Amino acid sequence: MDKDVLEKYIQAGKIAAEVREESKKFVKVGSSLLEIAEKIESLIKEKGAAPAFPVNLSLNNIAAHYTPGKGDKTRIAEGDLIKVDIGVHVDGYVGDTAYTITFNPEYEKLVLASEKALEEAIKLCTPGRKISEIGEKINEVITGMGFLPISNLTGHGLEKFNLHAEPQIPNVKITSNYKLKENQIIAIEPFATNGSGRVKDSEPTLIYSLVRPGPVRNQDARIIMNFASPFNSLPFAERWIPIDSLVRLRLALRELKMRNIIYDYPVLKEAAGGVISQAEHTVIVKDEPFVTTELENKQPSS
């Protein structure tokens, strides 16, 4: 791997780790999700990087893709469980990390299940390792603790300005001969649930990415295309778009979606309403796997 590229992955991971740990101080009962998201995204920028995607703040049965909308009034309630998923990029090179906090003792073991699965999966991120073995290990740990992994969510490869490159890293046992390669950058993210083990698309949609510019009639749609272009296809939040009227904004987004100019990310919820926990790190595939999103890191072995 090019030395400059490696340094940017490491820098993005380090900033993601710092922001993750700092964010835990203000993720509390009574906290506003909108204020948490804005604080996290501001911290990323203050540290000289940019959000790789809008921070995901997913409560209870929501697995992913929930970021606060404009004027969102949602607050963390007593008894809630929240997943905080943070992405940082430096010139397109990404660090992706997530954690779960529960304010209900009943879910402490559920949180531990995803964390323990992540810990064990990272040990397997070595060159030549079949991704099926990683999925099998995640499945084994989570089911061994009395829960189910989410079968239709996966970890993923990371490339420049590409959050979901190959390979997909399963959270369950699958049939695949795909083997990891040295210096691949992958995000491992086990999800554990006390529900059915699957997620489904749900409302609302609050995150989008630009697929390609195209002809539009609506002036606000042109504003959104121009706004989204610098993200280089990385996702952006509805609340980031500089259009004050929600009615105008959503009409413009609808036109862009119909013309396949933007891609939308519906909120993902547990199919049976179960509660979900998540843990995630970004890893460089090595004989000794190197986690870029840990706070204390040495240089990876050559």
Defining key terms:
302 residues; alpha+beta; Creatine Amidinohydrolase; Arc Repressor Mutant, subunit A; 2 domains; five-stranded antiparallel beta sheet; four-stranded antiparallel beta sheet; 16 strands; globular
In summary, what is this structure?
This protein has helices spanning 3-23, 33-46, 108-122, 131-144, 219-228, 246-258, and strands at 50-51, 56-59, 62-64, 81-90, 93-102, 148-149, 155-159, 162-169, 185-188, 191-193, 199-210, 236-237, 262-270, 276-278, 281-284, 290-291. By secondary structure, it is of the alpha+beta class. The strands form 4 sheets. The protein has a 5-stranded antiparallel beta sheet.
Rg, please? 19 Å
CATH architecture assignment name of the largest domain: Alpha-Beta Complex
Count all strands and give the number.
16
Instruction: Enumerate the strands of the largest sheet in spatial order, edge to edge or round the barrel.
Output: 8-7-9-15-16
CATH top level label of the largest domain: Alpha Beta
What is the helix content?
A: 25-40%
Q: Within the CATH hierarchy, at the fold level, what is the topology of the largest domain?
A: Creatine Amidinohydrolase
CATH H-tier superfamily of the largest domain: Creatinase/methionine aminopeptidase superfamily
Distance between the termini: 10 Å
Q: Topology of this protein?
A:
Layout (H helix, E strand, L loop, with lengths): L2 H21 L9 H14 L3 E2 L4 E4 L2 E3 L16 E10 L2 E10 L5 H15 L8 H14 L3 E2 L5 E5 L2 E8 L15 E4 L2 E3 L5 E12 L8 H10 L7 E2 L8 H13 L3 E9 L5 E3 L2 E4 L5 E2 L11
Antiparallel strand pairs: 1-4, 2-4, 3-13, 4-5, 6-10, 7-8, 7-9, 9-15, 10-14, 11-12, 11-13, 15-16
